[in-house]
Amino acid sequence: MATRIRQDVSKLAQWDATLLWYAKAMAEMQKRPINDPASWRYQAAIHGYQREQDPFASDSDTLPAAADQRTFWSQCQHSSWFFLPWHRVYLICFESIVAATVVKLGGPAGWSLPYWNYSDSSNPNARRLPAAFVLPTLPDGSPNPLNISARAPNDNGDIGMTPAEVDLGCLRDALYTGIADGGHPGFGGPRTGFNHGNGPTGGLEKTPHGDVHVAVGGDSGLMSAFETAALDPIFWLHHANIDRLWQVWLNRQSSHRNPTDAAWQSASNARFQFHDASGQMQTWVPSQVLDTTNALLGYQYEDTSDPFATGAPVNVHAAVGGPMGAVVQQPAELAGGTSAAHALSNAPSTAQVPLHPGASGVRGAALTSAPTRVYLNLENITGSGRPGGYGVFLNAGDAATPPAQSDPRFAGTLPMFGVQAASGSDLLHQGSGLTYVLDVTQVVDHLKAANAWDPHQLSVTFAPLRAGQQAPDLQVGRISLYYGD
Ligand SMILES: [Cu+2]
């Protein structure tokens, strides 16, 4: 079997056969009932399902048996080191169902999913939705299923996404698996169990992944919540790009490696169960999907080159030898934190974080000269609805008008993708909310150089990424600063 090429959607003609067949297959899959694993709705429910949030819910629905729902639905892995391999299997199964549907409709064999490279700095339209997803009709004049209305307001695909929201700083992360207690969570996320919805999120999962979700979905669209995201056909091109960036990260440094732990490789307590295109159940583990060109997967990406110039630095934090030669990260030291939750709203707000330089030992004292790293932890972020995202600034005053994202006090973005699911108390998510870790080493270096650093006090400003985003009950449970290697 020849290896399929997943193509860059921006390099395809507006109605290239790949996109036209995707649209036709989507329309066909939408006609199938929700209890058919090859239906559009069932495929989306694998990621997340809540009846109250289902925009297509109808009295005539026959839902799968409860046991099947428990096994196959609401399985998406977030805030988890299984985020990347689980979504890779999810895509391969979806792609095979679309491909079979294309053949059934009289199209060619071997359909493969394109990817949306919104971070491509050589393409001025990279951050706009691809044209095929915003055109009202197909070439034959029939309605275009790829153009759904439940997205953020956009002007011909322009959703106002900024470079910071598609920043590829995660590719500089030295480790796949970071730590969960204050230091760097790693490129792929800290060690977790299955169905993990809480705790620190790996670098790639936060940005660009989470940012693109909420930028496309806005405050009411499908892409902004686990339970509806995969109903939007752009979801699959977004995740193809995330899957591609995993390969880009592996390619760019020989020291970049996947976890070797059996708990990850063979996921002994974390089977990924999906249906194939013929409706048969299949069980997968990460070790089967680490080479995309193997017989099971059979694909590669059009471009997995390094987006950074040759020799661009990697973040060398944590690269010390652990047991059996594994690269592990030293624990980081707490430098201070808030004791009360900080409420976020649709206006900028600032929190004060007391720091205790004495309590943080040698590293804190040595921070003025030593090349240690500084991590801002934003823990237990809870809330309901689809509250978009925030830009975070350090020591920017409590100005009602925060600086631009190009300002050196800008520390990064906080996408709220999945916050409602992570705040719930159902079986899948324990309700402790989202936790993000920002590496703020460069921002702190800048503040020190500008004589704007106070070792006893840090102010953190949160600015909504978009006007009008609704956050009625959103809060950050704790804001803390850690010093690490
Ligand atoms: Cu996603």
From TrEMBL:
Keywords: Copper, Metal-binding. SUPFAM superfamilies: Di-copper centre-containing domain. Gene3D superfamilies: Di-copper center containing domain from catechol oxidase. It comes from the Bacteria. The keyword Metal-binding applies. InterPro entries: Di-copper_centre_dom_sf, DUF7868, Tyrosinase/Hemocyanin, Tyrosinase_Cu-bd. This is Tyrosinase copper-binding domain-containing protein. It comes from Silvimonas iriomotensis.
